UniProtKB/TrEMBL annotation:
Catalyzes the conversion of 3-deoxy-D-arabino-heptulosonate 7-phosphate (DAHP) to dehydroquinate (DHQ). GO terms for cellular component: cytoplasm. Residues 62-174 form the 3-dehydroquinate synthase N-terminal domain. One of its GO terms (biological process) is chorismate biosynthetic process. Keywords: Cobalt, Lyase, Metal-binding, NAD, Nucleotide-binding, Zinc. Its cofactor is Zn(2+); Co(2+); NAD(+). The lineage of its organism: Bacteria, Pseudomonadati, Bacteroidota, Flavobacteriia, Flavobacteriales. GO terms for molecular function: 3-dehydroquinate synthase activity; metal ion binding; nucleotide binding. This is 3-dehydroquinate synthase. NCBIfam families: aroB (TIGR01357). Its EC number is 4.2.3.4. The keyword Metal-binding applies.
Length: 359
């Protein structure tokens, strides 16, 4: 597959991507190669990756615990300490082999260690391939609040290898699929039509859809790298979705929601809000929402849950001067930025989601 050219680096794919990676390692001659993994990617992904790596340089493996709950400064401190103990210097390279937690956290670790060392991302989950692979966002959570601490800094390379999709349970594929659905909604009817009918049993077919998803996000980021305007469109469904994810993360009585599962709910809520505020077609709103819901288990919300979710909205990164701003749609492929939404409409959106889930 053809590489996608981001601002200062490439997103490369499959076997040819390993050739690009190995050429970079030869050219740069890093002092030590560090590979950051979690326990899952250590077990299921590292061997395949090392088999495709061509280098005589020293390789050190650093393992962290898996899961969003470990995407925090405490984990960063642990990695920084290990880097220091293993004599990492400013010519070292950190290769982040994992999902969005590993690539986000690993990128942040690299940006801060000795004021910045090179890093390369090898996303192993569908979510990381189509979302974390582009845009240079690195960082960690602050308690249950998503991505509150971080910087924008680009890697030297991103390598997307669809082989790793075979290591994932279906719920992880669903989590990444939500971001691909989002790209369809904000980009074009044609990509929405293609991705909503994707066959997850055929990874070779999924590879091209992944590349298109990366291209869509890259187009947006190139035009607006620091999220001043157009890049906000990538947050469609995320304003409420992130708040839902945070609520389910901090409430031990609730079953944990993966990122994409929460964003799927957030997109259905955003569809309803778009219908009410930006004239998104009523029939299309129902069609799109049902297509999303068909792929995800319905989630139940109490009135107290909704009130708590609304309170969490104040932490959304798109907010300005105390006002919560939403990304909505006027039609598929036409996002509308900086929309204000009343609490009453948010409650109505949850009613819409609840009623849709019963059909």
């Amino acid at each position: 597959m053809q590489a996608v050219q981001a601002k200062d680096y490439q997103v490369v794919f499959g076997n040819s991507g390993y050739n690009t990676l190995n050429n970079i390692l030869k050219e740069k001659k890093h002092s030590i190669l560090f590979i950051l993994v979690d326990s899952n990617t250590h077990e299921y992904c590292l061997s395949h990756f090392l088999q495709n790596l061509e280098t005589d340089q020293t390789i050190e493996i650093i393992e962290i615990d898996p899961g969003e709950e470990y995407k925090n400064l405490e984990t960063c401190t642990g990695v920084w300490n290990v880097l220091s103990e293993l004599n990492a210097d400013r010519k070292s390279l950190l290769i982040n082999l994992g999902g969005g937690v590993v690539t986000d956290l690993g990128g942040f670790v690299a940006c801060c260690f000795k004021r910045g060392i090179d890093f390369i991302n090898i996303p192993t989950t569908l979510l990381a391939m189509v979302d974390a692979s582009v845009g240079g966002k690195t960082g960690v959570d602050l308690g249950s609040l998503k991505n509150q601490i971080g910087v924008i800094s680009n890697p030297d390379l991103v390598l997307v290898d669809p082989h790793f999709l075979g290591t994932l349970p279906m719920e992880e594929l669903r989590s990444g699929y939500a971001e691909m659905l989002k790209h369809g909604l904000i980009h074009s009817q044609s990509y929405w039509d293609a991705v909503k009918d994707a066959d997850f049993s055929k990874f070779e077919d999924l590879g091209e859809l992944i590349r298109q998803s990366v291209e869509i996000k890259n187009e947006v980021v190139l035009k607006d790298p620091y999220e001043k305007d157009l890049r906000k469109s990538l947050n469609y469904g995320h304003t409420l979705g992130h708040a839902i994810e945070s609520l389910f993360m901090e409430d031990s009585s609730k079953n944990r929601l993966l990122h994409g599962e929460a964003i799927a709910v957030g997109m259905i809520l955003a569809n309803y809000l778009s219908r009410e505020i930006t004239d998104f077609d009523n029939t299309l709103c129902d069609e799109v929402s049902k297509a999303i819901l068909d792929f995800y288990q319905p989630v139940s919300f109490t009135e107290q849950d909704i009130e708590d979710i609304i309170k969490l909205l104040k932490y959304d990164k798109k907010n300005s001067h105390g006002t919560v701003y939403f990304v909505l749609l006027s039609k598929i492929g036409s996002p509308v930025l900086n929309q204000k939404v009343s609490n009453e409409l948010i409650f109505n959106a949850f009613d819409y989601y609840k009623n849709l889930s019963k059909k």
